[in-house]
Design goal:
heterodimer, A: 16% strand, globular, B: 776 residues, 6-stranded mixed β-sheet, 20 helices
Chain lengths: 156, 776
């Protein structure tokens, strides 16, 4: 029993018909071909499914798509649409913050949300903002350094 | 020996690798992203009991569900796959055992089909602990299995032994007799899981020509192909693995897991089948690092010289007996001179989930025991734990207990560098803080690699390899740097083609920290071969001897005449007569050891090992027992540093994973069932849990360039739990001999210790008897 929803994804208006029990994560990946967000736990514990909803990070694995009519979703594929997103992408690449890359989309979006609301966070603030994104590869050292570099690039 | 202290943090790296940009724009494709027309979804019904007979299985209702395209049980398998633990036959021996497989139109339908399969079990008594399992009164899980090299008197008194190994040298009794102090202890470690962010995944499809194609998250494509083909009873050339980017493996993807399940369902349905583990399945039915129990006894002279060490080490291999115990001996002995040794290791069958490879298999538990026991000896002698290590640390030319000749071994330098980083020997900031140190060694794994370097028409290059990239950058960062260096072009002009098994040459896979040292050297040789061909042709063009020509910045020049020709021109011209293709291979040999000193299932030597030391500073809350890690400093020998940033990335990540295994991580079990199969209860370190992790890089083979590279990725985790445990011991005065170092365990150790004796003195009085679970 599908329901029609209309929402904005990465700046584009999208119309979909979805069953009410489908998650935003599944709709993004299966219906819209946006495979950057990942299903790595399905319980909201790892952050690999993180997307921005009206600029705030959410676990798309726990969010029902039907509840999002009229809302604005940003995924990693839409990051390059604005300077802050691009600055973060460049900083992650340049500072060795990307290893296997599975957590990277979620981390980038959490970082973007942080820097959009706080231009110069301190290290503790950065770590708190990304504490919902598990990374098994990097130890977070260069991730934090990249976010600091991006925030400096934005404020200078 | 150069010790590069420019520790990590904000330095920009020179070359980030071709996949980094792909990953930050959301364009990286992993196995989970593979979508094929008419693709079905696979799921496995796993055993409801850790040990049981299957009395009846009825899948008729599942088969009748619309949208279910196949239900397979053992009787549906080809004969080559029977009796090989793909699907349970008439008995299950762990809760990871798969009993039936389904393929359905959607994941929800597949899950519903599993619920419709009726299985009637007769539960049998299970064993869940190594000491219980080896007890002759326990059930024998696999009667009639013989264990090579197990001495007859032990075979008569030990039950459920799957493997036995022994390392022996010198005269153990005399060694202990000459010792002024002997410290005997028992250490325990739990199962811990790799928890790569990407779960195990496979998509299998039978092409119209009959070839089975498998997209897979495997770390070892050629090994996976060989095993899968054998399982299915088909020639290896009829199976192709399409591999490339992997979302972390850490050993968990080095064997077959979901690939046979997807393949069998694809063959049964004639359609592509996707099989991806949920996180629940990853943790509940994965192949974690086996739990261990290690008994260790060390004797030393009053001046700190180590004389003797005896080890009995047990690896809980679960239902398959894969306990990785063969490695425990040389890893628990550590990088030290010990003339009299007897180390016996046992893989044990239990009804726990099967054991598997996890970053540096065997090492963190073995080093936890070995380095903890060494601290026990130091404290019994009233000796500084750093000093006792410096006194006994290997130097080049020493010989290990197995007869391996040690070379390029800067153990003392690493110890000093790590100790200095944490202010060893300086006045303690507070009485609740402690410092600990541990040294270790880890291989640059063996395995063969063949590489082709193709010179494109514009002078750029392609590296064609069967390798995968699971994150460290050994393939996507290391190989372009090596080729670029040899051909005088920029790394951005080198494309790495991760070709899988049917579109490129053979490779030994990503594991054992082997890639840069093996594949990298093969790539160097291929690039050198290409370079030689380039210079030959340029020599003809420039009418100059090839050995006089220089190759840099895309230009071949003759310094004698000033004449030059672009590399691109040579490359393009070659297309008319035959494109320049360089070939390189590397076949590795294990280093020599003395066969008389080893018996049975033993890991006798480590090839081209990295040596390291880690020092930890912790703060312990004496009321809660909670351990806060303030910093873990690593000083690691990488042979030759190919990419500083990538090296730091491995050491920082490995150290934090080690901190996880030291403080937070443990798969809890109850009667064979994993009771915390989710990422809320199984605690993987977050950004808030990461302490300072300074890195010092040593280069013991710098003069050899790329040929001197040592593996980096696993060495760091070897010593982290040990360094932290030793720091806890320093802080609170009593050892905690069980991981993880939870508040409860630290408090229990504090309460178990005699409060009337000052810290340190208690250890000197400890008699030589096993500790086990009883309080001393």
């Amino acid at each position: 029993m599908k329901r029609r929803i209309e929402l904005e994804v990465n700046g584009e208006r999208v119309q979909l018909e979805v069953e009410p029990d489908r998650t935003l994560l599944d709709v993004l990946r299966s219906d819209l071909g946006l495979s950057g967000a990942k299903d790595a736990c399905a319980t909201g514990d790892c952050g690999a499914c993180t997307v921005l909803l009206d600029g705030e990070p959410i676990n798309s694995c726990l969010t029902l798509a039907v509840a999002l009519s009229g809302r604005r979703v940003t995924t990693v594929e839409g990051l390059a649409d604005d300077p802050l997103g691009r600055a973060l992408q460049r900083a992650f690449v340049e500072h060795g913050a990307v290893q296997c890359g599975y957590c990277t989309p979620g981390l980038l979006l959490a970082a973007k949300s942080l820097l959009a609301r706080c231009a110069s966070p301190d290290e503790a603030g950065i770590r708190a903002a990304i504490s919902g994104n598990l990374c098994r590869c990097t130890g977070y050292v260069k991730v934090v350094a990249a976010i600091q570099a991006a925030s400096q690039a934005q404020t200078t | 020996m150069s010790v590069d202290r420019r520790g990590g943090g904000s330095a920009k790296q020179d070359y980030p690798g071709q996949d980094a940009w792909l990953k930050v724009v959301g364009g990286a494709e992993y196995t989970v992203d593979v979508r094929l027309p008419r693709m079905l979804h696979g799921a496995a019904l796993r055993s409801a009991h850790p040990h049981a007979r299957i009395l009846r299985l009825d899948a008729s209702r599942a088969r009748a569900l619309p949208g279910v395209r196949a239900v397979l049980t053992a009787t549906d398998l080809p004969s080559s796959a029977r009796g090989r633990r793909v699907l349970a036959e008439d008995r299950v021996t762990s809760m990871a055992d798969a009993v039936a497989l389904v393929a359905a139109d959607t994941p929800d339908l597949a899950a519903e089909a599993l619920r419709l399969i009726e299985v009637e079990y007769e539960p049998l008594r299970g064993v869940f602990d190594v000491l219980e399992a080896i007890d002759p009164r326990s059930p024998t899980l696999y009667p009639g299995r013989l264990v090579a090299a197990l001495p007859p008197e032990q075979a008569a008194s030990l039950n459920n032994v799957a493997g036995y190994g022994r390392v022996q040298c010198g005269d153990l009794e005399r060694g202990f007799a000459e010792s002024d102090v002997v410290v005997e202890e028992e250490y325990r470690t739990p199962m811990v899981h790799q928890v790569s962010l990407e779960p195990r995944a496979a998509v299998a499809m039978v092409e119209s020509g009959g070839k089975l194609v498998v997209w897979s998250s495997t770390q070892v494509p050629f090994g996976a192909r060989a095993t899968l083909a054998n399982l299915l009873g088909v020639p290896p050339a009829r199976v192709a693995f399409r591999t490339g980017l992997v979302g972390g493996g850490f050993g968990g993807k080095s064997g077959l897991h979901v690939e046979p399940l997807a393949a069998l369902l694809a063959m049964a349905t004639g359609r592509p089948v996707r099989f991806v583990n949920s996180r629940y399945e990853e943790l509940q039915a994965g192949t974690p690092r086996p739990a261990t129990l290690i008994r260790i006894k060390t004797g030393a002279r009053r001046d700190g010289t180590l004389l003797a060490r005896q080890i009995a080490a047990f690896g809980d291999g679960g239902c398959t007996g894969v306990g990785w115990a063969a490695r425990l001996a040389i890893l628990a002995l550590g990088p030290y001179r010990i003339p009299n040794v007897l180390a016996e290791t046992y893989d044990v069958y239990t009804n726990n989930v099967p054991g598997g490879a996890c970053r540096a298999p065997g090492a963190p538990p073995a080093v936890f025991a070995g380095e903890g026991n060494l601290d026990g000896v130091a404290r019994a002698l009233g000796m500084d734990p750093l000093e006792i290590r410096l006194k006994n640390a290997w130097r080049d030319g020493d010989v290990s207990a197995t007869g391996q000749v040690i070379e390029h071994a800067p153990v003392a330098e690493a110890l000093r560098a790590a100790a200095e980083r944490v202010g060893w020997g300086k006045r303690r900031e507070s009485p609740s803080r402690g410092l600990g140190i541990a040294a270790g060694w880890w291989q640059s794994g063996p395995g063969n690699s063949v590489v082709l370097v193709l010179l494109n028409v514009d002078g750029s290059a392609q590296v064609v390899t069967g390798a995968i990239e699971q994150g460290p950058g050994s393939a996507t960062i290391g190989l372009p740097l090596i080729v670029a260096g040899e051909l005088g072009i920029a790394p951005e002009q080198v494309e790495v083609v991760l070709a899988g098994t049917d579109r490129g040459p053979q490779d030994g896979g990503s594991g054992g920290s082997r890639v840069t040292a093996n594949l990298g050297v093969a790539t160097l040789r291929a690039a050198q071969d290409a370079r030689r061909q380039v210079l030959e042709r340029a020599a003809a063009e420039l009418d100059a001897p090839a050995d006089r020509l220089r190759l840099a910045a895309g230009l071949i020049s003759d310094p004698a005449t000033g004449a030059s020709i672009p590399l691109a021109a040579i490359a393009a011209a070659a297309y008319a007569t035959g494109q320049i293709v360089g070939y390189g291979s590397r076949v590795t040999q294990l280093p020599a050891h003395d066969p008389a000193r080893v018996a049975g299932n033993v890991w006798p030597a480590q090839s081209n090992p990295a040596y390291l030391a880690q020092a930890a500073e912790v703060e312990v809350d004496r009321e809660t027992g909670e351990v806060r890690v303030i910093r873990v400093a690593t000083a690691q020998d990488v042979g030759y540093a190919l990419s500083r940033t990538a090296i730091e990335g491995q050491i920082e990540g490995g150290t934090l994973q080690g901190i996880g295994q030291a403080i937070y991580e443990e798969l809890t079990t109850s009667e064979g069932r994993i009771t915390n199969p989710d990422l809320f209860r199984y605690a993987v370190p977050t950004a808030l849990d990461a302490p300072e992790m300074p890195v010092d890089v040593l280069e013991s083979r710098k003069a050899e360039g790329v040929a001197g590279v040592k593996g980096v990725g696993e060495a760091p985790i070897c010593t982290t739990p040990a360094a932290i445990a030793n720091a806890v011991r320093d802080a609170v005065g009593v050892p905690v001999r069980q991981l993880p170092l939870s508040g409860e365990r630290v408090l229990a150790a504090l309460e178990g210790g005699s409060l009337s004796l000052p810290a340190g003195q208690r250890d000197a009085e400890a008699p030589a008897r096993p500790r086990g679970r009883e309080s001393p």
